[in-house]
Model the fold of this input.
Amino acid sequence: MAGVLEGVRVLDFGRYIAGPYCATLLAEFGAEVIRIEKREGSEDRFVAPVGENGEGALFLQVNRNKKCVTLDPMKPEGQEVMRRLIATADVVVANLPPQTLRAMKLDYESLKAIKPDIILTTATAFGGPGPWSDRVGFDAVGQVMSGSVYMTGAGDPPYRAAVNWVDFGTALHCAFGTLAALIERGKSGRGQVVEGALLATALSFTNATLIEQAIIKVNRVPTGNLGQTAAPADIYRTKDGWVLCQVTGHPLFKRWARLMGEEEVWLKDPRFADDISRGNNGAVISERMARWCAERTTQEAVDTLGQAMIPTGPVLSPQQALDHPHIRAAGFMQDVDYPGLPKPAPVTRAAVRLSETPGEIAHRAPTLGEHTNLVLAELGYDEAEIAALRRGGIV
Done:
């Protein structure tokens, strides 16, 4: 089955996550994505190495379904190759600072001069306009400036999340924006710039906390895993591990009180009348839940809570996540071979399913420069010209 984005060509100049994962999502639903990479391999190829040539786990995840062309775009011959590529493209993805885009002639005005209806999808650290617009940054910068890190852990020290949720969230926003721009181009014939920013993503994810602070000046402080606006909401020790229980809304709280066998205790006390009151008295409710969990194994706790339709989940190590029966049965991951790996890599599929035009992982991530000859030949370069480009250090 052809992908819904079949016929769309994307040039991916992205690095690390925000740009590359945006392009990956487009590729998973049928777009042809060509990754443009440094001749020696871009730095994001080697993060958390797992392959015999140093290819990293992150690269395998966020570059599947792509072709790879190596290119030095700062040399005149490289600029000519790039111009030919851009002339064939619908979208250019480049999560690079504005000054770098200009130096590489990947700014929107330069692209439009080659392809008037081109879509440029960018992502920067801080967005703009503003005094920090030209600064660079990674995922954690968005985390610390959004209020999220301040509210995480016990406060001394503050903790950032170990997963790059700001990067991946920015990639999702950029992919959504790119699809919207493609729809608009189909109506009007116009290209445009799609701009994401790590800080904008982080602020959007923490926005409810910021709204609460702006309106009622609650001045919250971190409380570890204990929820602040509902209860029970915490991570509890069991006989053999840990389990999360998260109750929000009065119907769920009534189920929890019934499960405890103490409806009279919890449902008639004004301290527990609504979510915010329960959050304000969360330590009292959590103490009861902690005693309940301590009497059970993790499996017993999550099964009992799950059957009572109370949101719950076990705290899993990475290996336990790989082995969990639901994660395996649901097919969230696909085993993908890659040259030099001792075993296939479990790569997550796009976390959204379309019933009629589903995405698919059709190809592994590319080896360095794997498709250079193929793509250059499509652009009209013959074998002798390609060989000359290689001798000249262009590709």
